[in-house]
Amino acid sequence: MARTDSRIGQSTVIRGTIRGAGDIDLHGRIEGTIDVDGDVTVADSARVKAPVNGGRVVVRGAIAGNVKGKESVVLEEGARVVGDLAAPSIGIRRGGLLRGHVASGEHADRAPTSVAARATRPATTQRTAPAAAPSQKKAEPKSEAKTEAAPKLVEPTASPLTKPARTAPAPVMPALQKGAKAALKKKAR
Q1: Which one of 13, 145, 155, 188 has the lowest number of neighbouring Cβ atoms within 10 Å?
Q2: In-domain check, residue 187
């Protein structure tokens, strides 16, 4: 893209809809909708929370929203997209990150699913044991060994605007019962 019709500067924040017929070069922060007929370049300093529609879309920054290109969509090194990609031609360079679906070729005409619709689905499901009826409850034998509950692992929900979350440490083995300790000591001798 040699010529740019519009440029959104790095210190600029826009909340709303951007529509146009020419090319646009984004360096700032945009929240809303971007719909242009020309080329869209999302620079490495740009933070976009919007669906992006354009002729050719080149991403180097962060986008939280679906990206649709009439000709192509390219995620360059450092690009972070949380949303779906749709275009006749799609490229993801080494170091480009995508969390979403890709529709290319003949499937590119289908509108990508909404990121908001996917966000309402639970990220993880927890299984709980069915509650026993009060009359069927059995007394559990008392044990002198204390056990520790395994830590809950939480799926990190990384935003393209933040650093990824750290994972939980490995679970600790519960303490051995007295009888098991004695058996291990005998085997060790």
Answers
A1: 188
A2: no
Q: 40 lies in a domain?
A: yes
Residue 65 lies in a domain: yes
What is the pTM assigned to this prediction? 0.57
pLDDT at 167: 54
Query: What total number of domains does the chain contain?
Result: 1
Structure-token pair, residue 102: 């890709």
In a domain, 56, yes or no: yes
| CB neighbour list of residue 3: distance below 8 Å, 6 or more residues apart | 23
Angstrom distance (rounded) from CA 139 to CA 160: 50
Among candidates 60, 62, 34, which has minimal Cα distance to 48? 62
> Which residues constitute the domain of residue 61?
6-118
